[in-house]
Design brief:
The chain is of the alpha/beta class. Helix 10 crosses helix 11. Strands 1, 4, 9, 10, 11, 12, 13, 14 and 15 form a nine-stranded mixed β-sheet that branches. A four-stranded mixed β-sheet has the order 3-2-7-8. It has a two-stranded parallel sheet with strand order 5-6. It has one domain: Ribokinase (UDP-N-acetylmuramoyl-L-alanine:D-glutamate ligase, 3-Layer(aba) Sandwich), CATH 3.40.1190. It starts with a strand and ends in a 10-residue tail after the last helix. 33% of the residues lie in helices and 21% in strands. The protein is built from eleven helices and 15 strands.
Length: 348
């Protein structure tokens, strides 16, 4: 199948054990992850050839991040080295009515100090057919935004399919004002064939809101129809886009979410079944696992958007049962859930 390239920052994640608060922690669990690296791990698990491109510091922590990718079957020979530190984020896992918290410590990271010209994108994309980036990468710094723009321009010139997860992160966009942010994201997104984003992403990045219906983001009853106008407005703004997709998360509590998805191809809106995800183990990376499943599904079933969407939602549903950033499930496990088997019985 096709070769995929993802580009972004991988970080060191430090979390108090279990559901402890930061103030209770005497030690932290260590995980490596980030939006685009999580997508790469999913694709590698599904048997897709995938390279992850980033900039890492040439020290033991940078080497550990690289080895985590290699261990998961992700190509790491396009990684560049430089800078002094790996970005860090601290995660306090919520439960029931207490939400999770994230504290970033990624200023002056190797990736935040990347500059135009450091990556030879012609070489990176040799033999590739798909390029994926997220809205997290240009939010890191102006340099990261510039390099991401270099990447999409070259990928477009070479005829690659380009996808994005818009991933608005209020805590990250510090180097520019809202107008500059919108300009950066609009230019980058204009090169994309596949756009994933929820209603917050569309509104915060582009001022696009649902028309004629309220989007309920609390509780179970997320109405897929509420997103039709958002998808239509996105396609009007970005005429290159062939598909606009969103996940539908209903947050009943930190431990119980509903989960579904919709895909609009310009003519038809596809919807999935709604999953009840109770006793969540780790919801971080849920959107990334959806994106990894979606890319796989669109490559595997290029003429069947419904099947691709169903695979993405089932894959990301399973991710909520797995500790860490990345989704460590197989195609067979996803297909089993798609087929209706959610019993969790021991496989003997």
């Amino acid at each position: 199948m096709s070769k995929v390239v993802t580009f972004g920052e991988i970080m060191l994640r430090l979390s108090p054990q279990g559901f402890l608060r930061f103030s209770q922690a005497n030690n932290f669990d260590v995980v490596y992850g980030g939006g685009e690296s999580n997508v790469a791990v999913s694709l590698a698990n599904y048997g897709i050839s995938v390279d992850f491109v980033t900039r890492l510091p040439k020290n033991d922590i940078g080497q550990c991040a690289m080895m985590e990718m290699r261990k998961r079957g992700v190509g790491i020979d396009k990684i560049i080295w430089g800078g002094d530190r790996l970005g860090i984020y601290f995660l306090e896992t919520g439960a029931v009515s207490r939400g999770s918290k994230v504290v970033y410590d990624r200023a002056y990271s190797a990736m935040s100090e990347i500059k135009s010209g450091m990556i030879n994108w012609e070489e990176v994309f040799d033999g590739a057919e798909w390029f994926h980036w997220t809205g997290i990468t240009p939010a890191i710094s102006q340099g990261a935004a510039d390099v991401c723009l270099e990447a999409v321009k070259v990928a477009s010139k070479l005829g690659l399919t380009i996808s994005t997860d818009l991933n608005y992160r209020a805590k990250l966009w510090k180097f520019c004002d809202a107008a500059h942010r919108e300009g950066i994201m609009a230019e980058l997104t204009s090169y994309c064939d596949i756009i994933l984003g929820n209603e917050e992403d569309a509104e915060m990045h582009f001022g696009i809101k649902p028309e004629g219906i309220s989007v309920q983001t609390e509780g179970q009853n997320i109405k897929a129809e509420a997103f039709l106008s958002v998808c239509q407005q996105m396609m009007e703004k970005f005429p290159r886009a062939k598909k606009v997709i969103t996940t539908l998360r209903g947050s009943i509590s930190a431990s119980h979410n509903t989960w579904a998805g919709v895909l609009y191809d310009g003519k038809k809106m596809h919807k999935t079944r709604q999953y009840q995800i109770t006793d969540i183990v780790d919801r971080v990376g849920g959107g990334d696992s959806f994106m990894g499943g979606l890319i796989y599904g669109l490559l595997k079933y290029p003429e069947d958007d419904q099947n691709a969407l169903d695979f993405a939602v089932a894959a990301s549903c399973l991710k909520h049962t797995i500790k860490g950033d990345a989704n460590l499930v197989t195609v067979d496990e996803v297909n089993k859930l798609m087929g209706g088997d959610s019993s969790g019985r021991v496989a003997r």
